[in-house]
Specification:
- The chain is built from two helices and nine strands, in the order βαβββββαβββ.
- With 127 residues, it is of the alpha+beta class.
- The chain has two domains: 58 residues, 2,3-Dihydroxybiphenyl 1,2-Dioxygenase, domain 1 (Roll); 55 residues, 2,3-Dihydroxybiphenyl 1,2-Dioxygenase, domain 1 (Roll).
- The strands form two sheets. Strands 1, 2, 3, 4 and 5 form a five-stranded mixed beta sheet that branches.
- The two termini are 24 Å apart.
Length: 127
Amino acid sequence: MGIEHVALYVSDLEAARDFFVKYLDGKSNGGYHNPNTGFRSYFIAFDGGARLELMHKPGLIDAEKAPERTGYAHVAFSVGSKARVDELTERLQRDGFEVKSGPRTTGDGYYESCVVGVEGNLVEITV
């Protein structure tokens, strides 16, 4: 078995799509809209076959996302090298995104950084 995709509800669907396309080289489909419910979504495809579904519907509650909580912690993206981890982390920081940690080598040997991405959701950037 394999994970087919991971889904994320967001308040600003286009801003979320633009983030994953601009910074993480995602390829977006044309989107889906159900006019009966107001539900909208985009599938963002990444190298290697991973996909992220970004979703929005009327009435969503955008609760605070404390970093130390249960549930999904982050989505990790492999960018291929330490230099690319450093470059992308610096670019995101310059563009106003908060860097929570790194770039650094973790105790279990990963070279990574963690950035607060779209709507407070954590994005890990690793080799």
